[in-house]
Automatic annotation (TrEMBL):
Gene Ontology annotations for the cellular component aspect, listed alphabetically: plasma membrane
Keyword line: Cell inner membrane, Cell membrane, Membrane, Transmembrane, Transmembrane helix, Transport
Protein name from the UniProt record: MFS transporter
Membrane topology qualifier: Multi-pass membrane protein
InterPro entries: MFS_dom, MFS_sugar_transport-like, MFS_trans_sf, MHS_symport
Cited CDD domains: MFS_ShiA_like (cd17369)
The Major facilitator superfamily (MFS) profile domain, residue ranges: 17-434
Species classification: Bacteria, Pseudomonadati, Pseudomonadota, Gammaproteobacteria, Enterobacterales
Compartments reported by the entry: Cell inner membrane
Organism: Chania multitudinisentens RB-25
Length: 443
């Protein structure tokens, strides 16, 4: 049965859902991307001091990737919870747990204090972070897309997606402040401050999320379940159902993520490290470049999200993927200039135009591929599996490719081009989902 008009949220309720999802996503990515910055600038010296600089940097980036290995596991676990118990309770658990894990990272002793246990504990906490993130993204997006009017799902779904950039903005801004400290103070206690501050943000997010109701779509699913006659047999797990019946959609999402995740983590993690260590660019300058990109991401997401409501998800996604392929080499040419203005231009081309057009469409595009009974599981599993193969090890792969080529970036740019073209082909073959009835099990 379709959702009745009375079940549709009013404007104030939709606004509250969008804002709370944006805040939650901001906190999630603040925690997660803060780790990426620390991996590029600090962790190699704090947790891996007794190896060569290259090995230390690779080890630091590898711990960054560990969080992505855990994400599909979190997607399975919290996807099942979200499809059976509800979106709201699941999101409260993921956000609260994420905050605890991030705070504990800030409390970790260094390698010089407890030896090998320092990097071991770092990897464990990073794994827990990734596990919780695996259930966070899908639920936050569902809260908005399932609550939005059909003709505004692209626009409203794109707004919480900017949480990645507001989180990056906060993480970069706080890190920019602590990097002003003398290096010995930065490495001893300064880097810990941004991680510990996450507690304040988490408390705000928990307060906002506790005030939300379940989405109209999930409420209707619960209503149908309660009135369903002859409920004798135990229902199959949503995870089992979606993997068996819609594995093609899960695989599609994994491939689509290449055009978004590879450029993003290449520019925000690898490029920051490459510019500061190989090109001699000041750390503060690189942090300012990233911050400028984050500010521009807000209007760009709204633009591309609204456009996808007009022309469809596929055309916008294909446009973004082709732009990412075209901008990979110009990005590094502009980065090599060392000019703040030209480096910002490079980030605008690859991130604010190419990446943002893709990122804005993902919430609506990915969730619209699935029916309401398996939507949390399907979107989460697909997105988080894609996060492993497309994003988690991008800094590690990029560092390895540049080392093979004598610290040159050419192979890294080729990697971005290939990833983007593969995703563009997948988007071309994908179904158009913008007209889907979110209460139906099929397109």
């Amino acid at each position: 049965m379709p959702v009745t008009p009375k079940a549709v949220l009013d404007k104030s309720s939709i606004r509250r859902v969008v804002i709370s999802s944006w805040i939650g996503n901001t906190i999630e990515y603040y925690d997660f991307l803060l780790y990426g910055l620390a991996s590029a600038l600090v962790f190699s010296k704090v947790f891996f001091p007794n190896v060569s600089p290259l090995a230390a940097m690779l080890a630091s980036f590898a711990t960054f990737g560990v969080g992505f290995i855990a994400r599909p596991l979190g997607g399975v676990f919290f996807g099942h919870m979200g499809d059976t118990l509800g979106r709201k309770i699941t999101l409260l658990i993921t956000l609260g747990g994420m905050g605890v894990a991030t705070f504990l990272i800030g409390c970790l002793p260094s390698y010089n204090s407890i030896g090998i246990w320092a990097p071991i504990l770092l990897v464990v906490l990073r794994f827990i972070q990734g596990f919780l993130v695996g259930g966070e993204w899908g639920g936050a997006m569902l809260m908005v897309v399932e609550s939005a009017p059909a003709n505004r799902r692209g626009l409203l779904g794109s707004i919480p997606q900017t949480g990645g950039f507001s989180g990056q903005l906060l993480a970069t801004g706080v890190f920019a402040l602590v990097t002003q400290l003398p290096e010995d103070q930065l490495l001893s206690w300064g880097w810990r401050i941004p991680f510990m501050l996450s507690v304040v943000l988490v408390l705000v997010g928990m307060y906002m999320r506790r005030r939300l109701d379940e989405t109209p779509v999930f409420q209707e699913v619960q209503k149908q379940h309660k009135t369903k006659p002859n409920k004798v047999e135990k229902e199959e797990s949503p995870v089992v159902t979606v993997v068996r019946d819609q594995w093609r959609s899960i695989l599609l999402i994994m491939v689509l993520r290449f055009a978004e995740s590879v450029p993003f983590f290449m520019t925000t993690v690898f490029a920051v490290s490459y510019a500061t260590t190989q090109l001699g660019v000041d750390k503060q300058t690189m942090l300012n470049v990233v911050m400028a990109t984050c500010v521009l991401a807000f209007p760009m997401h709204a633009l591309f999200g609204a456009l996808s409501d007009k022309v469809g998800r596929r055309p916008v996604y294909i446009f973004g993927a082709l732009c990412a392929a075209a901008m990979a080499f110009p990005f590094f040419w502009l980065l090599e200039s060392g000019s703040f203005v030209l480096m910002v231009l490079g980030y605008i081309l690859l991130i604010n135009i190419a990446h943002n057009s893709i990122n804005a469409v993902q919430p609506s595009f990915f969730t619209e591929l699935f029916g309401p009974k398996v939507r949390y599981s399907g979107a989460s599993i697909g997105a988080q599996l894609g996060a492993i193969v497309a994003g988690g090890f991008t800094p590690f792969i990029a560092k390895g490719l540049s080392a093979i080529d004598h610290n040159d970036w050419t192979l890294v740019a080729c990697y971005v081009v290939i990833a983007a073209l593969v995703a563009a082909y997948a988007a071309w073959r994908a179904p158009e989902t913008s007209k889907r009835d979110m209460t139906k099990d099929t397109l």
